[in-house]
Amino acid sequence: MRFFGVQGIGLVLAGLCGCAAAPSFRKNPDQMQAVLHSKSATARTFAELGYKLIPSFPFKSANWTSADWEILDEHAQVFDFDGFKSYLLAYDLPAVGRARRFSFVSLPTTSHISTRGVFNPTFRVLDAGFRELAVHEDFPLTSEGVFEGAFDIPPEGRYLVVHTTREKLSRSGTFEYTSIEGGMTFTSTVKNPMLPEGAFRIGLE
């Protein structure tokens, strides 16, 4: 799994989204976990969550900028999945009477080598009664160190919930960290877990 330094990752994300900066999280993974564990659940059921209208932004739009990141951090809602807490994003999907294609990329962080990592997402599609229609997860990890994928949302899909799982957060691995300084490339290897916080670029078409 490869992560790039501040300058190098700018080049990667420029190719992914036309932007020149990357999301920055100031806490290390242990601090992220401690803050999350200290929080109370926002809701007991999916019906009690606060939903926002999903951005209907084409995933491949040339006008996409860093201002369009969807951020999942300590300011997000918290849900308790049978004793495991996760931050989550909750979206209201407009009823359009047809299936739609949802695409995403989960962006790596860049603020410090100790926080370098990526959020590994699970997506739950719900109907108008907040009943689960589908679960989408286990997306591929690209050579740029990001999770990305796409799936179809059926016409009856009205809500989308994004979170992570206990099993995903327990994963760790050896990541290749590359920085570019003064025109020279430096590579080192670090071990880092998946993060409970993250940033996304999403699109619904």
Question: How do the strands and helices of this protein lay out in sequence?
Answer:
Blueprint lengths: L1 E3 L1 H12 L11 H10 L13 E2 L16 E3 L4 E5 L2 E9 L7 E8 L14 E5 L5 E5 L10 E7 L5 E5 L2 H4 L2 E10 L2 E10 L4 E7 L1
Parallel strand pairs: 1-11, 2-5
Antiparallel strand pairs: 3-13, 4-5, 5-10, 6-9, 6-13, 7-8, 7-10, 11-12
Q: What is Rg?
A: 17 Å
Question: What helical percentage do the residues reach?
Answer: 10-25%
Q: Ends: how far apart?
A: 30 Å
Shape: globular
Query: Percent of residues in beta strands?
Result: 35-45%
Structural class: mainly beta
Low-confidence stretches: 1-20
- List the domain count as a whole number: 1
The whole-number mean of residue pLDDT values reads 76
How many separate helices? 3
In N-to-C order, the SSE pattern is: EHHEEEEEEEEEHEEE
Overall strand count? 13
Main sheet summary: 6 strands, mixed
Describe what this molecule looks like in 3D.
This protein is mostly beta strands. The protein has one domain (2-204). Helix content is 13%, strand content 39%. It contains 3 helices and 13 strands; from the N terminus they run βααβββββββββαβββ. It has helices at residues 6-17, 29-38, 166-169; strands at residues 2-4, 52-53, 70-72, 77-81, 84-92, 100-107, 122-126, 132-136, 147-153, 159-163, 172-181, 184-193, 198-204. The strands form 3 sheets. Strands 2, 4, 5, 7, 8 and 10 form a 6-stranded mixed sheet that branches. A 4-stranded antiparallel sheet has the order 3-13-6-9, with no helix packed on it. The model is unreliable at 1-20 (pLDDT under 50).
